[in-house]
Automatic annotation (TrEMBL):
Belongs to the HIBADH-related family. SUPFAM superfamilies: 6-phosphogluconate dehydrogenase C-terminal domain-like, NAD(P)-binding Rossmann-fold domains. PANTHER family: CYTOKINE-LIKE NUCLEAR FACTOR N-PAC, OXIDOREDUCTASE GLYR1-RELATED. Gene3D superfamilies: N-(1-d-carboxylethyl)-l-norvaline Dehydrogenase, domain 2, NAD(P)-binding Rossmann-like Domain. Residues 6-156 form the 6-phosphogluconate dehydrogenase NADP-binding domain. Residues 159-275 form the 3-hydroxyisobutyrate dehydrogenase-like NAD-binding domain. It holds the Pfam family NAD_binding_2. It comes from Nocardioides pocheonensis. Keywords: NAD, Oxidoreductase. This is NAD(P)-dependent oxidoreductase. GO terms for molecular function: NAD binding; NADP binding; oxidoreductase activity.
């Protein structure tokens, strides 16, 4: 298996950890970010533009905020025809289809591969990759996927990864909002909210995320592992996909409203657990 030269576009909360692990795996890497200071100190070459980053790359990785930004940056990058585009941003079903069309327009090999995990797993190389795309691209991207993730699931044609990402995130957002509401109810009923976390701990109703996010809510330790604005964006993407498929997603709709309320209250750049602050 040959070692690809990789360009990574987007060194935010997720991209920085991913970049460090790609470098640690011995893969030649060039990075670009709109805020250049976020691309520094990663051990990679730093490009001044997306086009400079993509020049000569075998694989171009995008890990950006939404489909609109991804499309804008890739058009600016103009990778050479035949380059493998490893698209790892969460963009939803319609966004994924739009980016696949862009790949066809530019002559790129499109691999749709969003990830499950937040800042910590990204830094530890422990992401789960939901990969989908042409089988003949797998060998090219596998060194990158091995560097950033603990597990890769290949799901079929491009687009399946983005679909499963929405399904998985629907559960994540449900858990986070559910924990926030349970803690709020406990407080309103005159209980110590910690008693909820204690009573479910280790039992059938518990999950690592319940304790992790519940503890963050109660301690106020809201350093963004996954920012609240991103949770609100993903909730909208999940709703759009459900609506298009004829599915009523009432819980996600309620969670989105609560996330957006917390954003109005000024908590958008905090961790998604900050939804608790606005209950």
């Amino acid at each position: 298996m040959n070692t690809p030269h990789v360009a990574l576009l987007g060194t935010g909360i997720m991209g920085r950890g991913m970049a460090r692990n790609i470098v640690a795996a011995g893969i030649p890497l060039t990075v670009w970010n709109r805020s250049p200071e976020k691309a520094a100190d990663l051990g990679a070459d730093v490009a001044q533009s997306p086009a400079e980053a993509a020049k000569g790359a075998d694989v171009v990785v995008t890990i950006l905020s939404d489909a609109h930004v991804v499309e804008e940056v890739v058009r600016e990058a103009e990778p050479a025809r035949g380059t493998v585009w490893l698209q790892q941003s969460t963009v939803g079903v319609e966004g994924c289809e739009r980016l696949a069309a862009l790949a066809a327009e530019l002559g790129l090999v499109y691999v749709d591969a969003p990830v499950l995990g937040t800042k910590g797993p990204a830094e530890a190389g422990q992401l789960t990759v939901l990969a989908s795309g042409p089988a003949d691209a797998r060998e090219t991207v596998q060194p990158v996927l091995d560097a950033i993730g603990a597990r890769t699931l290949w799901l079929g044609a491009a687009g399946q990864g983005s679909r499963l990402k929405l399904v998985a995130n629907s559960w994540v957002l449900t858990v986070v909002e559910g924990v926030a509401e349970a803690l709020t109810l406990a407080r309103a009923l005159g209980l110590d909210p910690q008693s909820f976390l204690d009573v479910v701990k280790g039992g059938a109703m518990d999950a690592p995320y319940v304790q992790l996010k519940g503890a963050a809510m109660l301690s106020g330790d809201l350093d963004p592992q996954f920012p609240l604005w991103g949770a609100a964006k993903d909730a909208r993407l999940i709703q759009e996909a459900g609506r298009a498929a004829g599915v009523d997603l009432a819980i996600i709709e309620a969670a989105r409203r609560h996330f957006e309320r917390a954003m109005v209250d000024g908590h958008g750049d905090l961790d998604m657990a900050a939804t608790y602050l606005s209950h």
